[in-house]
Amino acid sequence: MMASSLMETVELRNGTWMPLLGLGTFKAEEGGQVEQAIKWALEMGYRSIDTASIYGNEAGVGKALAESGVPRDEIFLTTKLWNDDQGYDATMRAFDASLERLGTAYVDLYLVHWPVRDKIQETWQAMNAIHRSGRAKAIGVSNFLEEHLTELLNGSGITPMVNQIEFHPRLQQPGLIEFCEGRRIVVEAWSPLMRGEVLTIPELVQIGEKHGKSAAQVTLRWQIQRGIVTIPKTVNQDRLASNAAIFDFELTEEEMGAINALDQDQRTGPDPKTFGYS
Known about the structure:
- Helix 2 packs across helix 3, helix 3 packs across helix 4 and helix 7 (202-211) crosses helix 8 (215-225).
- By secondary structure, the protein is an alpha/beta fold.
- Strands 3-4-5-6-7-8-9-10 form an eight-stranded parallel sheet. A two-stranded antiparallel ribbon has the order 1-2.
- The chain has ten helices and ten strands.
- It has a single domain (9-197, 227-250), classed as NADP-dependent oxidoreductase domain (TIM Barrel).
- Belongs to the aldo/keto reductase family.
């Protein structure tokens, strides 16, 4: 797909529009660091900000958004429910606490951060109640594999709108992607640049040289051309600008195929089969 600007979006199943490129805030420190990163991002035209209760920076994210001058309805704000807060009542309390820290009446997307055994159904019931209340425009999950999604769907019949997963050239999870796409679950990539490791992959460097782009820019371009939402994390102003400079070129079918061939089922983060699911 040819995406041409930071304003490019993908439609979620309930009609909500989500930007294809956003800013992740994992490990962005509460206070000045995360606030400055968001200020720069919004000035550059970013409109999607992703955080989580476990990141410990929701207050800083909310402060930066409030002080930015950008209308709240122009910003797509995501936060996530941590494992220790799962279960119906705990989920409701955790969501209220996130809203309070963020200083907003609603979020655009609320995600279950990881699947937790024996709590998936109860947690998902609470997520749906939150969505029906209007305080989350969309709901979804994060790090759910096919078996987790199947369990969720079999129990509730209500399909998540988004699944945020680790996705990059070395971890493409084609079966999971196909499963999600077949059910209109939008896939969103975390750790899209492999914590910088994409810069050392020769094939990406070579493709970048043809376009006058970095391996990181090639990787992000590949993701959005596949229709996958991506949220690279950085608190560096130059990298924020570089990550956004991916809308003035397009990868060829051959280049897309070459990147697709780089898959090695290699994770940089925890495995959802075991993390939080024991």
